[in-house]
Amino acid sequence: MASCAGPLIVIGGHEDKEGDKAILQEVAARLDGGKLVIATVASHEPEGYFDAYQKAFAALGVTDLVELYVNDRDETRSPKNLDLLRDAAGIFFTGGDQLRISSQIGDTPIEEMVRAIHDSGGVVAGTSAGASVMSETMLVRGSSAESHRIGDLHMAPGLGLIRDVIIDQHFAERGRIGRLLGGVAQNPRVLGIGIDEDTAIVIDGDTFKVVGAGAVYVVDGSTVSHSNIAEAGRQEALSMFGVSLHVLSSGDQFKLSSRRPCARDPST
Amino acid sequence: MASCAGPLIVIGGHEDKEGDKAILQEVAARLDGGKLVIATVASHEPEGYFDAYQKAFAALGVTDLVELYVNDRDETRSPKNLDLLRDAAGIFFTGGDQLRISSQIGDTPIEEMVRAIHDSGGVVAGTSAGASVMSETMLVRGSSAESHRIGDLHMAPGLGLIRDVIIDQHFAERGRIGRLLGGVAQNPRVLGIGIDEDTAIVIDGDTFKVVGAGAVYVVDGSTVSHSNIAEAGRQEALSMFGVSLHVLSSGDQFKLSSRRPCARDPST
């Protein structure tokens, strides 16, 4: 039986808002004219975020847009905020700090409603911090533009909308292959997914497809024959042999359960 | 029969010159008190390079150090420059532009003498541009900190001291996994080797070992099941499925012919 869960649109940050807006178009197309909630919870200073999305989505015909922001967990129980979500066709988490999203709305009525939107077929989208937070265990902090040091990675429980993956964003732009490998080394049960800026994966059930200008890197640790992550000192560099790496670009697809990529039909 | 060729020490740039100098120590240890030629040919403005190496190597007991620089190909035939190399135990190529090394000394008496030093057991070392130039086909230009675009990679014939590999340097620091994947996609016969700053591989015959603070990434394309490099447009992002990736750190070894990594003995 097919799941009734809606699509998850996971964006690597800096999605185009002024050109062809390929990624926001994917969001818009799945709203069926319904209301989209822009959740700016990840940001300490959310001013301006909503306006930029309002303008971009208006150009795509999405006009029923509202902003959700909470200063504190207390506000997740306010009837006003819960009303915002009640008849939403989708929710879009903007960037900032993933730990702000999880610590402010984790285990609150808002999180319950986000899950209900997803379960009943609505769209859940997130960019940058809003992308990372979708997994069960999320990357919170780790060095960019250097190889992974054993002790240099912080993870935390995310919203858990996607199981058995770790997501990283701004991927090629910030040189984050090292820290994603480090995350996967900790437990190869999780698949590492690194998403470039202006690039997204659209997850429908067991499959995702790639949209946007950059690439998506899938790090599959199931083939790893050796890693030093449990033995080496905190300042030592990671060793990890036999990683399977897939690089996907626009139109390519990936089947999560079998961990298999599938190329875009070249005629399309 | 064992080859009599000497070691190749291939450094990812910015090797430590003031602390424990682990990488320069590897060079020094293999000179047996002999003369080391510092070749600053890669640089348009080599002033200061030699002094920095002189100071660092002096602290390691290497005092017989000379500088080789040529302004133009004509100077590669000067008896003075050829004399510098005649009784050298090793040569060390400093950083700059790899195309300057290959275009200035390629197919000249100096290149012949470098090859003779290598063939007779001498040390050939190179850092940054001096690392890239060691392979048959070398990376010359390509974007860092973004995913590979099909048309965005320039390669050129290097000195060819190492066959069937492409070397990239400043690897994690400049986010170069994308361009190395792009190079390997063009012909998976070549193994991609990405070397971090202050990190080196020491190649002895068919095996290399890793020295230094960072990591070495080996991209093996022999398992690749799909790539779009021949079909996609120049501005499109690379797709490449099923790459085998090995991350090695200090003490790990790699056998080139069988493409197999071997972990450091944890007791050492």
TrEMBL record, chains A, B:
MF (Gene Ontology): carboxypeptidase activity; peptidyl-dipeptidase activity; serine-type peptidase activity
InterPro entries: Class_I_gatase-like, Peptidase_S51, Peptidase_S51_cyanophycinase
Keyword terms of this UniProt record: Carboxypeptidase, Hydrolase, Protease, Serine protease
Gene Ontology biological-process entries: proteolysis
Source species, domain of life: Bacteria
Keyword Cytoplasm: no
EC number: 3.4.15.6
Substrates-to-products reaction catalysed: [L-4-(L-arginin-2-N-yl)aspartate](n) + H2O = [L-4-(L-arginin-2-N-yl)aspartate](n-1) + L-4-(L-arginin-2-N-yl)aspartate
Active site: 128, 170, 197
Pfam families: Peptidase_S51 (PF03575)
Recorded family membership: Belongs to the peptidase S51 family.
Free-text function comment from the UniProt entry: Exopeptidase that catalyzes the hydrolytic cleavage of multi-L-arginyl-poly-L-aspartic acid (cyanophycin; a water-insoluble reserve polymer) into aspartate-arginine dipeptides.
Protein name: Cyanophycinase
Species this protein is from: Sphingomonas panacisoli
